[in-house]
Amino acid sequence: MDVLTENFSLYGKGFLGTVELTVYSSILALVLGFFMASCRVSPVGSLRVLGTVWVTVLRNTPLTLLFFAVLLGLPRFGLVLPFKVFAVLALGCYTSAFICEVLRSGINTVPTGQGEAARSLGMTFGQTLNTVVLPQAFRSVIPPVGSTLIALAKNSAIAGAFSVTELLGTYKTLNELGYSIIWTFIWIAVGYLIITLSISALFNVMEKRWGVAR
Question: InterPro entries this protein is in (predicted)?
Fold first, then answer.
């Protein structure tokens, strides 16, 4: 317990840093994922190509390499931002590719006849997607979206290697101070467990309220 009690503020800063990264990156991932999923099912060919390229490139790029590209590459083009913002961009964009495919799979579960019926009533593609298709798709994608965001929370540990304050990065300071590396990592693991279980509990509540009855 000494590792935790004597360094509670350090653990607290790391924990809050991971929570912030998770929350902001999740918002970005959901917004981009929704947009790219809309592109993937759009009747406009250029938008479908955009969505396909986005998903293909990001899903097949190692996250660490994406961090290097964002944190070290963008400043070379004159875009200088705090490292935490760059980390949110890398995590959010990477995860958005997976959110996109989850949403697209949910959209594909909606019978095509419903979309055709909506269009026969004169509804535009956007109206059909937002009022007919997505509300039904949302119910079926709650569990996989939750799993994807849990993975995002754990992936945020990479940000510590790029001078971003987060939970895993606290081990460096504690190791230099001579604390037991085993107990250091145990309390780090407890912190991640709290975050991931909180996300899981939130999505369990959402699934019970809005999910598809099995």
Answer: AA_ABC_transptr_permease_3TM (IPR010065), ArtM/GltK/GlnP/TcyL/YhdX-like (IPR043429), MetI-like (IPR000515), MetI-like_sf (IPR035906)
